[in-house]
Amino acid sequence: MAPPSAVPFTAVVLLLVATAAASAQLRPKYYSQTCPDAERIVREVMRKAMIREPRSVASVMRFQFHDCFVNGCDGSLLLDDTPTMLGEKLALSNINSLRSFEVVDEIKDALERACPGVVSCADIVIMAARDAVALTGGPDWEVKLGRKDSLTASQEDSSNIMPSPRSNATFLINLFAKFNLSARDMVALSGSHSIGQARCFSIMFRLYNQSGTGKPDPAMDPEYRLKLDKLCPLGGDENVTGDLDATPRVFDNQYFKDLVAGRGFLNSDQTLYTMAETRDYVRAFSKDQIEFFKAFVEGMIKMGDLLSGRPGEIRKNCRVVNSWPVDILLES
Ligand code: HEM
Ligand SMILES: *[C@@H]1O[C@H](CO)[C@@H](O)[C@H](O)[C@H]1NC(C)=O
Ligand SMILES: *[C@@H]1O[C@H](CO)[C@@H](O)[C@H](O)[C@H]1NC(C)=O
Ligand SMILES: *[C@@H]1O[C@H](CO)[C@@H](O)[C@H](O)[C@H]1NC(C)=O
Ligand SMILES: *[C@@H]1O[C@H](CO)[C@@H](O)[C@H](O)[C@H]1NC(C)=O
To answer: What's the pTM?
Structure first.
């Protein structure tokens, strides 16, 4: 994955920062009058999805990051391509990687049955991400709601902004700072990798050719590396997946304990412990789960406040904007 090119990225960030005040509109219990059961409905569909396929809730939780960092939390990530618009689903970091979009569709269907045209897809992403964490043993918290869905998406912005698994802590600190998120926020939010999986594709370079050295990443625990070498042999199927931490179905601070032990899956994970700027946070979270949970919730709320300030709507179908001929698409 190519590093972000500076120009479009800067433009996007300036837009975000200039309009961050729009987050003032968000508030808890936004749907208490218009759709009082909304949060219960989302939680229930997520619970069923988790029973059906435990990983799906992690996959849905990841949507918040990939939605909010690209022109704000506006549900743009969920839009399918159209003949005139390349959506974000096929952007560099998303293609063959983001999954479980059908869970969001199920949530949307249930909400449209209960209160048609009221709950935005952007808010569904925020509620579902919170529920994924709560359902897997992590903290539960009140989310601010009232987002509108975007009328468009940008594959280019997504490809330029979303970080590669090769990223190091310095790069990630700078990236998150552009979104007003601190190094502590970034480390805590990386703790989302306490649940879910990633592909061999994302770690081949660090197993066999870290930074072009022809050697593996020296920061890896040798036993763990052997395990990953078996899972991801050179020339093997790079779509095979491995667990992001030792307890991939439980949201806990095991992820940080693993980093301290050199058992981080992604380079971007392990570097949080290897590099001095972030090591103390990793160590603290590995020792104190409550502190991790607190920092994580703060980070999720701050990330959820990112808004583009562009005009929006309440989409009827999370995959298409309302002006698009929905009926034709659904019938085909
Ligand atoms: C700090 C920078 C981050 C980087 C570089 C990063 C990168 C990645 C990569 C490369 C994968 C696996 C993709 C694949 O192999 O298909 C992944 C998975 C995941 N990411 Fe991140 N991520 C970051 C931050 C976040 C944040 C902030 C969240 C959510 C708040 C998040 C949630 C997840 C989850 C839950 C998964 C597992 C998804 C699944 O099992 O389907 N990540 N991430
Ligand atoms: C971290 O990543 C950046 C951007 O890819 C790179 O320029 C820098 O040299 C890296 N730092 C270290 C210490 O590897
Ligand atoms: C950045 O975060 C600080 C502290 O959380 C907050 O006071 C400030 O308003 C934020 N700025 C923007 C542009 O979001
Ligand atoms: C390792 O990476 C370097 C630089 O990216 C490349 O020139 C070299 O061919 C790679 N080696 C292998 C064995 O893939
Ligand atoms: C993974 O599978 C997809 C199809 O599902 C394929 O297009 C892609 O090339 C595969 N990627 C890798 C890295 O093997």
So the answer is: 0.92
